[in-house]
Design goal:
three-stranded mixed sheet; alpha+beta; 5 strands; two-stranded antiparallel ribbon
Length: 190
Amino acid sequence: QTLQGSLAVAREQLQRLQGAPAVDPQALGMLGAQLRAMEFLSHNLQEAARLAAGSITLQPVEEDLTPHLCRVVEAWQGQEPGVPIRLQVPVAPVRLRFDPVRVRQVFDALLANAVQHGRGRGEVHVELSTSETLVTVRVRDEGPGFSEQELPRLFAPFQARPADGGTGLGLYIASELERLHGGAVSVESQ
C-alpha cells in the first residue's frame, strides 16, 4: 500500500471518529494536526522526487505577480496572527511569465521559513521590487540567522537543522522551482 493510500485511509477513519459520540475532541484535534503534517511531508517527498527526476513541467502565464504575492502573505497573516508580516510592493503591476501554482509554492516555502525562524523575534518583511532586467522578492526575518557552515546546505534536500523539526525539503523545492523559472533563490545571513 502506498503512503498516499495509507494517509487516505487514516483521513477516512479520523472523519468517522469526528462523528462518534464520547470521543475526546482534543485527541481528535491532535490526530488531525499530525495527519496534516504527514500529508504535507508526503507531498514534499513526492515534489522533491519529481524535481530530482526532471518530471515537473511549468504551466506559465503572463500576469501581474503582485496579487499572487499578496494572497500568499494574507494567508500567512491569517494562519500566524502572532507574527507580524509586512508587505511592500510597487504601485505599478509587475508583469512576467510564471507558473502561478509553482510560484505560490516558492512564496509559501520562503514565508514558512521566515515565520518559523522569526517567531517571537520581530517582524517578517516581504518586499517585491523590480529593475529593468530583474524581479526580486525578498523575505527577511529577525531570527537568529544561519552559521557559515549551514549556508551552503540550505538548498540541498534533507538538510534541516535538528532544532527546526523540518524535513529540509521546503527551500530545496523552492530553489528548484525558481531554477525552472529561470531564476534563483539565495540567502544572506547576519
